[in-house]
Amino acid sequence: MAGAAKRLRSIIGGSAGNFVEWYDWFAYASLSIYFAPAFFPEGNETIQLMNTAAIFAVGFIMRPIGAWVMGIYGDRHGRKAGLALSVGLMCAGSLLIAIAPTYASAGWAAPALLVFARMLQGLSVGGEFGASSTYLSEMASKGHRGFWSSFHYVTLIGGQLAALGVLIVLQILLSETALEAWGWRIPFAIGAALAAGVYLFRRGLSETAQFANIDRSATPPSSARHLWAGHRRATLMIVAMTIGGTLAFYAYTTYLQKFLVNTSGFTRPQATAITAAALAVFMVQQPLWGWLSDQIGRKPQMIFFGVTGMLATVPVFNALAATSDAVTAFALAVIPMTLMSAYTAVGPITKAELYPAHIRTLGVALPYAIANTVFGGTAEYVALWLKNAGMETAFYWYVSAGIAVALAAFIALPDTKRISQISEE
Hints:
This protein is mainly alpha-helical. The chain has helices at about 1-40, 45-75, 80-100, 105, 110-140, 145-150, 150-175, 175-185, 185-200, 210, 225-230, 230-265, 270-295, 300-320, 325-345, 345-355, 360-375, 380-390, 395-410. Helix 2 packs antiparallel against helix 17 and helix 5 packs across helix 16 (about 345-355). The two termini are about 15 Å apart.
């Protein structure tokens, strides 16, 4: 019983940190429609959003660096050490955004500081995915790894939902003018405080047995060179899987709020409420799909997403663009999120099961971060650029093509439920 309680505490601890990481990360995305004029006062709304989306992409550029540095750190110094470092960096980045000067008071120093803060957050999230995915996968019990590791995306979505929830409360309590003037700072201050608390909590987590049992004399040190030399096929499969998964995720979730305002014509509070409700449905599905993967395997679910996501994206976005009814928009948004749940619930565990313990954190983090940067980090900017150029529907096809690339990887993937590099305990 004591062992089970310790395992549960560790899983909750890892998940809590992941929640805060992604709350802070997505607070930027959900609040950008309010603080864009503070940092980029010139131009129309689409141009302002393009500028903030470009800085959003800068954060992604740092993610491979964070994945590389902290992936190696987590493989050499421990999973919990990597978890503590990642949330500490996120705390610093969020605090900087909360206190950043505006363009009116500091000129171009204001967006420059915003870029630096996003760089810190990018380093943090780049390391967090590998650290938390590996930690949750290694702490999960035999036969239930799909279920327990699905809480990675429960907390990821929960963080995004919490950011939207805070925004909804602020929209109720504050006027549009107050939100644009100073109210947008509040969520970042909350995120910094939460991150500081989780940093202290994570320092007290238990280390995983998988890490403790690594035979350093019989394995090469964790490095990008050894990752590529010894695990090339797994690394390339993760890149391909992530291309479709990350494009779908950022199109269906992060960009959705702006799409509902900028294309469908909903008000900002309406778009926030629709997005939050759809994300709540998305979040609660994750453990169900994780449990199902423990019964039938990871591979069938991912192929299901690949086929259905590829076919559904274009008609769903076309329908969303044409609707002015909030209930209809919510129902349409839930469709691709449900299909994507088959992948998101098992993506982290599948990646972790492809690598041995001595290089697992780096293996999970680095190829994911590279593909996430190139395709996820630019998804909003590509969507807004195509819209500004009068070719918005091309973005829908772009997302579908990315999912098709992932489908090819899903088909080639071994079913890691049966063939796993995570040793049984």
